[in-house]
TrEMBL record:
Protein name, entry field: Proteasome inhibitor PI31 subunit
Native source species: Myodes glareolus
Superkingdom of the organism of origin: Eukaryota
Record's subunit section: Monomer and homodimer. Interacts with FBXO7.
Keyword field contains Methyltransferase: no
GO biological process: proteasome-mediated ubiquitin-dependent protein catabolic process
Lineage: Eukaryota, Metazoa, Chordata, Craniata, Vertebrata
UniProt domain PI31 proteasome regulator N-terminal: residue ranges: 12-95
Record carries keyword Membrane: no
Protein task: Plays an important role in control of proteasome function. Inhibits the hydrolysis of protein and peptide substrates by the 20S proteasome. Also inhibits the activation of the proteasome by the proteasome regulatory proteins PA700 and PA28.
Matches recorded under InterPro entries: PI31-like (IPR045128), PI31_Prot_N (IPR021625)
Length: 124
């Protein structure tokens, strides 16, 4: 993946809110750390395809974003869920390679971090 600006430019027509911009950034972080995107939703589907691009309809639900990933060596799978809450998002990442299924989570206030840069590609 060449960089966030390239990904953001390819996803820009579909980005319509700060939540979309944050999920686009999260996708870039996962991909630049050795993963391919597989698709949307909790379960594998017939249209799954390993790619560095965001899958079709990745942002069809503005309240809940669900993206699946697989490491380039195939050893790990990730499930990323981002839930919109008031003026922020709760983000969970489940790792399916380990027995305990560790969860990484965080909370982001969109008004503080993304509203000023939303729609301004050079600032992002």
């Amino acid at each position: 993946m060449a960089g966030l600006e390239v990904l953001f430019s390819s996803a820009a027509p579909a980005i319509s809110c700060p939540q979309d911009a944050l999920v686009c950034f999260l996708h870039w972080e996962v991909v630049t750390n050795g993963y391919y995107g597989l698709g949307t939703g909790d379960q594998p589907g017939p249209s799954d395809k390993k790619s560095e691009l965001l899958p079709a309809s990745w942002n069809s639900n503005k309240e809940l974003y669900v993206l699946r990933y697989e490491s380039k060596d195939g050893a790990k799978k990730l499930l990323l869920k981002a839930v919109s809450v008031e003026n922020g998002m709760i983000i969970n990442v489940l790792v399916s390679s380990s027995p305990g299924l560790p969860t990484v989570w965080g909370e982001m206030h969109l008004e503080t971090h993304f509203s000023s840069a939303f729609g301004n590609v050079p600032k992002v």
